Amino acid sequence: MSQSFYPPQRTLMGPGPSDVPARVLGALARPTLGHLDPLFVGLMDDIKALLQYAFRTDNALTLPVSAPGSAGMEACFVNLVSPGDKVIVCRNGVFGGRMQENVERCGATAVMVEDDWGQPVSIDKVAEAFAEHPDASLLAFVHAETSTGVRSDAAALCALAREHGALSIVDTVTSLGGIELDVDGWGADAVYSGTQKCLSCVPGISPVTFSPRAVERINGREHKVQSWFLDMQLVMGYWGANTKRAYHHTAPVNAMYALHESLVMLQEEGLEAAWARHARNHAALVAGLEAMGLSMAVAEAHRLPQLNAVNIPEGVDDAAVRSALLNEFDLEIGAGLGALAGKTWRVGLMGHSSRERNLVSCLTALESVLGSQGAAIRTGAALPAAKAVLAG
Predict the structure, then answer these.
(1) 66-120: per-residue pLDDT in tens?
(2) Which Pfam families match (predicted)?
(3) What pLDDT sits at residue 243?
(4) Which end of the chain is more exposed for a tag (fewer CB within 10 A), N or C?
(5) CA-CA distance, 286 to 208, in Å (whole number)?
(6) Final residue of a structural domain among 268, 289, 310
């Protein structure tokens, strides 16, 4: 007979989910309201305003999709891409490949701009793609590539799309709340994210925002959106402001409580302060890792502070290290994906996971496990180096 499940208390320092603070977990336990209850409708309006703050946008079409980040991605593509369209897709990791999948499933053509894993999207290559394909109507790229720990220049890429009369679709799943993101300032048109990364909310919700140009394209579609559930013209009947809410689906009410609480916490800290905290803790982690004798997989200019790709030392068993960290220290870090599988670890410093306590735990545990494997590391050097950075 099955019994209730009581998970252990892990420290989550992988590529997501991140640690969920007690305030957010507590919000989940509040009494469930009906999804059309006037009090819940009022909460929906506040969630929308808080998402606009987090995205730095005044877009009216800003809402949390009741599904994980992959659904937010699909919502952007199915609403903006029609059969026969041509879309320039940038791939420098796993998630650019998922964008290609979405384009092709919409019956459109994906013009691929390829960059090496561990490198940012090349602005010059994208410019060449627009020159070769002037009929391309969209540009899709990942701002913060979770599979590699690389940041691309979203402002320049969005400007390039506008220069060529194209809309931009931007993956900010790992960037929202962790590094600078300025939807209106950059002129981004369709942006999607996730709740389980730098927002430190529970997984399962995808914030999205669409510019007025994107809304115009949605309203001018000649074909129905291929997904009924993700059709923004239908969803806005439920999430639209200053309208009588029309039933579309039953929102995950308690998960929305959690999202609201996480966004309130972000607003209390302040966006710039949150970005600075992620940057400071990243610098301390890197100092500790390098003092230990490890190296980073991404050039300093393009590193994500919230997702750190670390080169695995020669002769070290990747899976054995991660297993020991989990089983002996209740600490989760991530494996490399795709071309970087077995070559890198992905150490997350996202949201509530980005704090000094976690830094100390990670460096201490990693030094212990690597030492037990006989890795050629410098013991006793990591913590002093990290704390020196934190002390300023």
Answers:
(1) 999 999 999 999 999 999 999 999 999 999 999 999 999 999 999 999 999 999 9
(2) Aminotran_5
(3) 60
(4) N
(5) 32
(6) 268
Q: Which residues contact 163 (CB under 8 A, 6 or more apart)?
A: none
Residue 244 pLDDT greater than 90, yes or no: no
Judge whether 346 is annotated as a binding position.
Answer: yes
Question: From residue 28, how far is each of 5, 260, 264 by CA, in Å?
Answer: 17, 10, 14
Distance from CA of residue 112 to its chain's centroid? 22
Q: Do 85 and 116 share a domain, yes or no?
A: yes
CATH number, domain at 28? 3.40.640.10
pLDDT at 241: 61
Asked if residue 7 is part of any domain, the answer here is no
Q: Which two tokens stand for residue 326?
A: 């989990």
In the chain, how many domains are there?
Answer: 2
Q: Are residues 149 and 200 in the same domain?
A: yes
Distance, CA of 271 to CA of 356 (rounded, Å): 19
Domain assignment of residue 339, given as a range: 271-390
**Domain limit, last residue, from 210, 235, 268:** 268
Q: Are strands 307-311 and 167-171 parallel, antiparallel or unpaired?
A: unpaired
Q: Cβ distance 168 to 158 under 8 Å?
A: yes
Residue 15, domain member (yes or no): no
Q: Partners of 150 in the beta sheet?
A: 145, 303
Same-domain pairing of 70 and 195: yes
48 within domain boundaries: yes
C-alpha span between 140 and 101 (Å, rounded) = 12
User: Within this chain, do residues 159 and 74 fall inside the same structural domain, yes or no?
Assistant: yes
312, 328: one domain? yes
The CATH number covering residue 371 comes to: 3.90.1150.10
Distances (CA, A) of 224 to 218, 227, 249: 10, 8, 19
- What percentage of residues in the chain have a pLDDT greater than 70? 99
Q: Which distant-in-sequence residues (6+ apart) come within 8 Å of 348 by Cβ?
A: 12, 13, 14, 15, 16, 18, 197, 306, 307, 308, 333, 334
pLDDT in the model for residue 370: 97
